[in-house]
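Model it.
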Amino acid sequence: MLLVLGVYLVAGNLSGGAGGGAKTLAKGSVPAAYQSLVARWGNLCPAINPALLAAQLYQESGWDPDVVSHADARGIAQFIPGTWAAHGIDGDGDGDRNIWDPKDAIPSAASYDCELARYVKDVPGDTTNNMLAAYNAGAYRVIKAGGVPAISETQNYVKIIRSLEKSFAAPTGRVDPSEQAAGAIAYAQKKLGTPYLWGGNGTADQGGRFDCSGLTKAAYESVGIKLPRVANDQYNAGPHPGRDELLPGDLVFFSDDLTNSRAIRHVGIYVGGGYMIDAPRTGAVIRFDPIDTPDYFGATRVTEDGAKALPTTV
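Modeled.
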């Protein structure tokens, strides 16, 4: 642990990073079981912040601590065993380093990020972008290229994480309105009165019927923005305005667990005046419903970059 703390102290003295500092997590964006870990370790060095660390973990595993990739990357932080052997730490101080334990894996992800930032600290450009590129392609390639290398996978990885970062960060000012919002509302309005269908995507073989996230997905797809299929992933399609900042076109979400976006079970499209258009449940039709209910979770202002950044499978 003395060696690890030494790495932290060195990493904490880095300069030039754009990732760290004042960013805090949006309400419920990180599952409650991991929120304190992400909030603490996300401030480990200036190159990262809690929202950036959350974006990485979500992109890598969708918060699943038991997932294994086709490349044998393991756990919530998706460490390959060889990388874990070199860089995994005992985050909870219980005497072991367990790749499957988020209390070790999340601190290890932050520690590894800061270690990579130290390696690329003298490379021109944004230290956080260079750190993310090193995470994907290796520090040597970043140093050799003098920045993010011209590798499409690496460039996309950096862009994805930086875009997702915005959906995990609590807004610090005005959230810009979506240009596609009016078109999404217009689409949903045309579906008023359509019967609900669990799993419905509005296809002809389903009689044009939808469930809640099928409707919101189709509404935004009609204006050129492709959302993931399920509501709890749609939550990360952009930043999160407060209740008093809602604009027509925002997606509004509902959950029985207001501390965990992964538990979101319903979504609608806000239309103003405290109402949304939604496909509520079996036996009902697409209709206007009030949003101010005890299970109101929050809202997302959909952005094109935010939607593109979402993983297709988590």
